[in-house]
């Protein structure tokens, strides 16, 4: 039952509106920009009244960038597909490898376990450029340069430690007693892992997976150094709109809208798990 | 091909008809534009193949690393002609300009054999050359067995040939007899004035021809034109702030960045009385009539403001003004171009240049074949195709600039452009001293300029501090 006075309700509504406008404004502005030409975007002062156009999206999807007196070829759709392939594959692989590893680190004490876990975490400390040039040399020698497999492997440097350490924390938060009871009934440790630990840590795994996906999606430098132009993700591809003949703001805005869509949809879909997962971690005491 | 079509094409090949006239003539004979272009391509290929074995490397495949640029687009559009002429295959990687040089450096530093040819700026070769990453191209240019007689290396503007050749000795004169040709000029930009004709008319201001007039004109435009400032120049903390208008004007007063002593030692040259007077005038111009957030200005902002009508003129790359006059800009069709000699006593402009060039990777396994591509891509025929059919401006060859079709196309849509180029081209070259600390020292110069404009340091004192710092760094690097 709501005991708030009408004034309190109004004030709360106003406060919520202010917060929503504050946080949503950049996104809405970018969305509006994506339906404008460069000429209207660069008007001074800016205006909310304009003739909407789908030209920016057409240029992105059609691969032809027309602006400031010149036409350039862009491969934004291919960049987008590359991002999807690289992020989905590397996070899937990291979940496949990282979740059992996280369980092992959480449940079993073995010689060197902390050292191994810390070594994996230390991959996150090294500046990427420090390792990328030597890696480029090795990749060329073993034929992994310019391949999705090579890139997915290198992406593990970003996603694997993240998943391993976050998920390990969730496994440690779950009382082992439930698993012991299950194993006393004659089940193997693998069955206990699959039937008991995994479902209980589900929200945590979803949260870690989503975070890892965002990190992988936002990565810039790995593909730039290790792969050719046809394997580049959106983060590199989006720079194609800063051209010798000017900055194509409308197309940049449309590119941001398109590139944010998968992450946004994934976050909306996994929202319940994400909140659960993050708050589970937050109450660890 | 009919007899009359053949006659027209032959007339063009003998130079009696320009390309535009040829296509018009073919049109009159009922040949479509696409058909005419195909005929021209076939005839050119036949003519080029007559006196040189273009097919010596048929079947070889080359890989290029390219910057996303209208020059690249012009080349890709004409690549079919190269394939047909040589029987070679070409694949390429195109990267956006913001990350392009990171990619080049990564590929070269890792000794990658992936790329045979790549685009570069002349300044970058001062690092790549001494590092052994690129090849001295004199070996091919001077070999008649490997270079087509029609290549005409001397047709490339002399200032550009010299600016892309360096002997590798810090302070060594560009284009000296012992210089190595690190790259081949491909397309270039010189620095002059691009201005908004309507705004100049409204304010009753004449196009400035020297620094005093520019300061005055910019101030009046700043006052009289609502919603626009007087003059756009770059201001970010980067070497790129120094190299366009600023250095072009500075060099026009006979000033240098560094002194080179008889024993080859380098020292700062930017704190002379003349340099201080020029810096003071430049700083005052920005303070009075420059953009409000000048210290963030790269060429993007400088060009964008001109195109959007937020500035009355720019002193920057001529091709920046060229692109801002194109469709998609609020000021499309309203811009004009003029040569600019900052020093009233100077006889002609001395624009510093940015040269997009083609270089050969030293790690390439197909160097001869790569040269076959380089001479085609930097040849007069492709230059003319790019300049007349695409946005391959500014061309680096004198013969392309002499082409009436190209000149009239420019003159009709870009008033004053041809003249500003004709007047400036003889003095267009790199005015920096070639040395390995180029990027560090020039960036510090830009940072000092920022402090002067922000009134954090007086001009005289700032330049003395800069010179002391430059001298220290040169000594530390064993160059001074």
Write structural notes for this entry.
The complex is a heterodimer of chains A (285) and B (480). Helices cover 72% and strands 4% of the residues of chain A. Chain A is built from 13 helices and four strands. In chain A, helix 4 packs parallel to helix 7 and helix 9 packs across helix 13. The longest helix of chain A has 32 residues, at 76-107. By secondary structure, chain B is α/β, with parallel strands linked by helices. In chain B, a hairpin with a 5-residue loop joins strand 8 (258-260) and strand 9. Chains A and B meet through strand 2, helix 6, strand 3 and strand 4 of A and helix 4, strand 2, helix 6, helix 15 and helix 16 of B.
Strand percent estimate of chain B: 5-15%
Shape of chain A: flat
Main beta sheet strand tally, sense and closure of chain B: 8 strands, mixed
Overall domain count of chain A: 2
The low-pLDDT segments of chain B are: none
Distance between the termini of chain A: 33 Å
Query: By helix and strand content of chain B, what is the structural category?
Result: alpha/beta
- Which percent bin holds the helix content of chain B? 40-55%
Content-based structural category of chain A: mainly alpha
Report the top-level CATH class of the largest domain in chain A.
Mainly Alpha
Q: If you average the pLDDT of chain A, what whole number results?
A: 86
Report how far apart the termini of chain B are: 66 Å
Biggest interface between chains = A-B, 37 and 41 residues
Strand order of the largest sheet of chain A: 1-2
Number of helices of chain A: 13
SSE order and pairing:
The complex is a heterodimer of chains A (285) and B (480).
Chain A: H1 6-33, H2 38-41, H3 55-62, E1 64-67, E2 70-73, H4 76-107, H5 113-122, H6 128-142, H7 148-173, H8 177-184, H9 189-218, H10 221-226, H11 234-237, E3 242-243, E4 246-247, H12 249-269, H13 271-282
Antiparallel strand pairs in A: 1-2, 3-4
Chain B: H1 3-13, H2 19-28, H3 33-50, E1 61-67, H4 70-77, H5 79-86, E2 89-95, H6 97-109, E3 117-121, H7 122-128, H8 138-141, H9 158-163, E4 165-166, E5 180-181, E6 184-196, H10 197-203, H11 211-224, E7 229-232, H12 239-242, H13 245-252, E8 258-260, E9 266-268, H14 273-289, H15 299-308, E10 311-317, H16 318-324, E11 335-338, E12 353-360, H17 367-377, H18 380-389, H19 398-401, H20 404-413, H21 417-424, H22 438-453, H23 459-476
Parallel strand pairs in B: 1-2, 1-3, 7-10
Antiparallel strand pairs in B: 3-12, 4-5, 6-10, 6-11, 6-12, 8-9
Helix pairs in contact in B: 1-2, 2-3, 3-5, 11-14, 15-16, 22-23
